[in-house]
Amino acid sequence: MGDVQKVQVGDVQLAYRVWGEADAPPAVLLHSLGEDGEDWRGVVGRLATTHRVHALDQRGHGRSDWPGEYGFERWRDDAIGFVEALGLGPVTLIGHSLGATAALLLAAHRPDLVSHLIAEEPAPPVPADPPQEVPAPPPGPASFDWQAKAAVVAERNAPAPHWRTALAAITAPTLVMSGGATSPIPPDHLAELADTIPTARLVTIEDAGHLIHEDRPGDYLAAVTSFLAGA
What we know:
Blueprint: E1 4-9, E2 12-19, E3 26-30, H1 44-47, E4 52-56, H2 72-85, E5 91-96, H3 98-109, E6 114-120, H4 146-157, H5 162-166, E7 174-178, H6 187-196, E8 200-204, H7 212-215, H8 217-230
Parallel strand pairs: 3-4, 3-5, 5-6, 6-7, 7-8
Antiparallel strand pairs: 1-2, 2-4
C-alpha cells in the first residue's frame, strides 16, 4: 500500500495514502466504520490505473486523529476539507457504508467538488428497524474510536430529516451499489435512495452482502469501471 501522509483539516489531522500517476484524474476513497485506508487494498490497484487515488483514514480511525466527536456530517465536512486542502476537486468520490453516506452528503452539500459518485451500501435515510444498539467494545487494543460506533448507531436510529431531501441536490453521475438480500441494508431502501437522486443508477450484486468490494472485488470493479467509462 502507499506511504501514509498527513494533512491538517480544521481541528483534525487526517492520514491518507496515494496511488496512481500524478496527472491522472483524482479519486477519493472513504472507508466504512472500523476500517481505514488499507480497506481498499483489494481494488485500489485497478482504480489507480485510471485515477490518482487518495484513500483517507477518516477521523476516529487508523492514523488520523481520534477527537471523540463524530457524526456523518462531521465526516462529510472532513472530506470536504481534505479535497480543498489538497486542491483536488472535482473528484471521483467513492465510499463504502459510513464512507458512502458521508460521500452522498458531500455531493449534495458541495456538488462542485464531485465529478462522479459511487456509494457502496450507504446507510439509507430511514430509521433502522429494529433499532440498533451499541455493543460493548471488543477486548484488546482499539482499532478505532468506539465513540464513532456510538455516533453511527444514534444516527442510524434517528437520521437527520433533511438528509433525504438533500439527496435531490446531487448533480454528479451517481452509482448506488447494493449487496442484495444478504446485506443488512435492505435492498428496497437503497432502491428508494437511488430514486431520490436524479442522476443515480442502482446496481445490485446479488448475494454479495455488505462488503461488496472486499468479498466480490471482481464484480465490484466491473460495475465501477463500467460506470466510470460510461458516465
